[in-house]
Protein 1
Amino acid sequence: MRGRSRAAVWAGLAVLVAVAVPQTAWWDLNHTVFAQAVVSGLLIGGVYSLVAMGLSLVFGVLDIINFAHGALMTITIYVSYLLFQNYGVDPYVSLVITIPLMFVVGVGIQRFAINPVMDAPVHNQLLLTLGIAIIIENLALVLFTGTPRSIELAYARNEFDLGVVNLDFPLRVFGAVVSLPKLIAFLVALLLAGVLYLLMQRTQLGTAIRASAQEPEGAELVGIDVRRIYTITFGIGAACVGAAGSLVLPFLFVSPTAGSTFTIIAFVVVVLGGMGSIQGALIGGLVIGLTQELTQLFVPGSSKFLGVFIVFLAVLLFRPEGILGKARR
Amino acid sequence: MIRLRQIAAASSRDLLILLGVVAVLALMPLGVSSFTLSVATAALIFALAGIGWNVLSGFAGQFSFGHAAYFGLGAYTVAVTFTKYSISPWLGLLLGGLVAAIFGLLTGWISFRFGLKGAYFALATFALAELLRLTFNNFDYVGSGVGIAIPLAGGDSWGTLQFENTPAIRYFVALGLVALGTLAVIVIKRSRAGSRMLAVREDEDAAASLGINPLRAKLGAIAISGFITAVAGGYYVMFLMFIDPDLAFGPFISVVILLRPIVGGVGTIWGPIVGAAVLSILGEVTRSLVRDPPSFLQVIEGVNGLDQVMFGLILVLVIIRAPDGVIGLFRRFRKRSSQ
């Protein structure tokens, strides 16, 4: 009950702010900018969620700080890019290739590189994944040089006004522009989150993964091959970030470090949402997306990551188990 | 005094090794080009930063992934006090160390009080370094994103710590700082404070039950660690004659700092120095291989990024095959041959 009443207080505060803010002069001047910041924040937040989901699984189940996560994304970004440039394969169609491909890559990395260091201290695991990231990034540099590239989808030009669609909406998000690729990325991220959630909660595999995360020895005792579960989990994590790579291609500059910029954000989201929690990663991604856009709005000239890192530190200190994680202390 | 004499007696072997290492390294300027000498100087500076990292992460067991924070604070303290207040860089090195130590005490107190450990502590240190980088990027007093260039004071001088035309002296100063840092670590490791750090690393609860205050042991480690790494950062500015937020606080710097002690051997006195030697040689070999490959590998000539690929491969192999670093590998080998 305490949790519920606290939630009611927060909801009440949110409603109060939502009602009061539109009355102010500041709102009259800035509501379009504000609406744009919120919409952009939610959209990029969806991508963050997707990237973070895979990381959350790996972090939550294997307890590995995987610094190669973003570099894995770089692989699919290039695969989708090459498929589009050479064979005209739509990035969204290339998902059927990149998702299984990255599952295999993830399984390979886990089996040959990470399994041997599963019992090693944190710093060794971190350095190992960092080494993998260095290899992937610089292989991309060797193969494709550092020149930034981008693709243009023929149908991505029709941008539409959210204001036209939601004309009677009380929040009046007039003028906030949504580009089609970002909206698609957002929606697919939601869809994949749902699929992943069902996989984790409703299937035998998901149960085995959760058991291995909570109590590896107990899982072993009831006949679960924990090493194998670890390998599959890393594969699923890589598949998630693989999907993210294909989805961001239409609105991102392709470069060897394109994916790595997401690594840190993904860690922030994972800690915020709670290790191993799919819903947590979803909510955390949206919160961080909003935080970064609103930071830029309210603290002009600052880096958008300033607010993100402040939120990150606050969460680490005051609620290290994350919004939806189970208390560890 | 008695205590110090006891420590000296207990670590006479390490002190002898230190003397030998310094003597050998001091001969280096005789036989190499000035380019190699500046590579070696940079290697020594990062070895010193690694020595600092090793105190917190190796001895006290609190893995830091954001030591760029201390490195950068030391660097900026020297740059700001020298360019704005004409304070001697020697004093700047000390001030930078103090600033970093205080920063470490404050942030460490908060982090440890809230029970951060393991991966969470590592991520918090990373976030702190990033916050400093982003703040300095927008901080006009320290030149924002442009950074600070150290003006040439004219002539080589011990007073201004500038040795533009005498790279050998620049190298000797770095060597001297590394020797001092190593000496400090030898003393710390054999001192009571050091024993407390090791006890906390091995088992915090058991240490607490023996009457050790884990918070104080960890705070001591973070202050000393920050101080040493900041001195390295301060001298790095006088070596580079320039600093900006990315060079001072960038994530890459944190990685560079922790790489040497880990490759050499975490929590060992000689790890950072051995790691620095191994990595410098490897780095130069891969770089020259790409620059000027043997005839059967002609295709790789001048390919951008290839040396980094090799570097990453070696890193992965070292972690898998030699998880205790080069020193651990050496010890295992010796144990096996003595059996």
Note: DSSP finds 13 helices and two strands in chain A.
Protein 2
Amino acid sequence: MNLFPNARILEIDLSNRKIATRIIPGETYRLYPGGSALGVYLMLQDMKPGIDPLSPENMLVFSVSALTGLPISGISRLTVTAKSPLTGTIGDSQSGGFFPSHFKANGWDSVVFRGKAERPVYLYIDGDKVEIRDAQNLWGKVTGEAESIIREELGDKNIEIAQIGPAGENLVKFACIINMCNRANGRNGMGAVMGSKNLKAVVVKKAKAVKAYEQDKFHELAVSVKQRLEENSTVAGLGQYGTDGDLEGFHNEGFLPTKNWTTGYFPEGADKTTGTTMYETILKERDTCFACAVRCKRVVEVTGVVDPLYGGPEYETCATFGSYCGVTELETIALANQLCNMYGLDTISCGATIAFAMECYEKGLINDSDTFGLKLGFGNSNAVPILVEKIAKREDFGDLLAEGSFRAAQKIGKEAECLSISVKGQELPAHMPQYKPSVGLVYAVNPFGADHQSSEHDVFLVLPPDSRERQRLAQIGIWKGYDNPFELDDEKVRFALESQKYFSILDTLCLCQFVWGPSWELYGPDDLVDLCRYGIGWDTSLHELMLVGERRINMMRFFNAREGFDKRDDKLPDRLFEPFVEGPSKGVCLDKDMFESAKEAYYELAGWDKDSGNPRSSSLRRLSLGWLPDKN
Amino acid sequence: MEIKVNSKSQSIPDDYTVSMLLYHMNYPKSSAVFINGRQILFREYDNYKLNEKDTVKIIRMLGGG
């Protein structure tokens, strides 16, 4: 038997330039073993409700997990947590790359930033040598340039850098944090929080991989990835064509969000912007994260236009800058993706906010005077890269859009508010609840706004009961199959909740959902238990892990309740309840009554109060969170 | 022989299996297949032979990203 490891937390007080170490004992760390579970735990300890997310009082927490750094696929993920300036809720965002594993290999589980530096700084970590360094020469620089300057200044290529671009410095509400110039902690505006603290970057010295507790068995689990890839055409396809491989498939079914979600049908552009086309045209190579065999990351190149340094667009990016905006040119999408990675912007919120502006323009809610002369109709591909830069720099019309579509709609007024396709102020990712109603339910109830990576998607319940996907879901108690994805009965709600708990484990342990998810991925729930056991000697069970996942969701929901959020904020845009008027999905919409009933069932199954939709004290106590009510 | 696939008529040779149909119609192997309302198990795909006038529903898995 091995005791759960302690967490080593790096405490950085930017206002006073103080650096300290804090140890969280293993018996506590086991309850919140990394990621945003650890982040929100630390925030609930010390942070008062009601603070301005862009004030020095906000905490910014970078976390990995007790497992991070082990040499196995899908394990190098970084979570950033803070109060979100975009939603006002808890903020939560993940990224991959090599930074997370090297951060952990330096001996740290988390770094907490408090206060605000007097001048721009960056943090340098080399084991226990930690320095707050001047970053005035980096301020205003795009990510690629800043990375070059830092490497030159340190005279060291063996470093990993997570940084903000000018968008974070300019407090764009959906600014992100970028590592490797192409991996993003994209959502919830964590880059703006970093910018508000005058913190340009976190730099870690590369270090040796963490050693496993049971080396032989761990090695066996790690190398089994080769056979798993051979046997799993879904993940193999993901590796070959990237996440964008399914874009045309969504269009074929009539569920590719197009022209600001007015249709699910994109005949003029789906085949031009899908992953197979990218593979055949602008793809230069496939990239990967630390120790990962999947290699799903895209690297694209368009000579003189798009630099491979900035990676390539994911499915969400191809949809938000493509179909959402009616843009059919893959090169424009790749350029918009590059600009987002240079300036540090979330591609989902950025593309969706531009699509919102395009619809406002087409409907006459804004005009050439508002846009400073920019013609913003759907399909105007020239306008997209121009607007991305204006948003990042908060120039003229970009200053309004830098607030995100929800706040921009409030300022535009008139009918604009119903054109912001967002939940809790965060723009919807490119998975339509009309096709995936349980994903829509999770969009609504998720503590940090609409997110497509917080639960499993409905379609896997349509597979035969002898499929690997259904067999694995059965391990977490999901037994019922469906002959179409459109239903949202009690068992589907339970699927949403249980798979949300599972994805919450992944965002706690900082694991990639494409490798460690609960159904179609490379490793299943039983393998996850083995990973914990062989990796760090954590003799756990699926039961304990599901509690870990549920605990994180409840802490986040409690955080939001302190900020005044309740079930009234768990609502989807009206547009989702209106039937499509064209394409293969013509006539299809999300049934309002079915959806509202499902929401009530969700609160009941989650053990949350039926009037407020927030956790009851009995539910908190069941999750060892009895200490939380004192933090009100 | 004639069958219906997702409400559209489709001509296929005799002795055509579910696996052959998926391949012919460019659907991934991981698609869900229902024939005359019954879901076919994955392990049946290679050997299950389609019959004249069968009504086939194929659903692609469109997931993450």
Note: DSSP finds 26 helices and 16 strands in chain A.
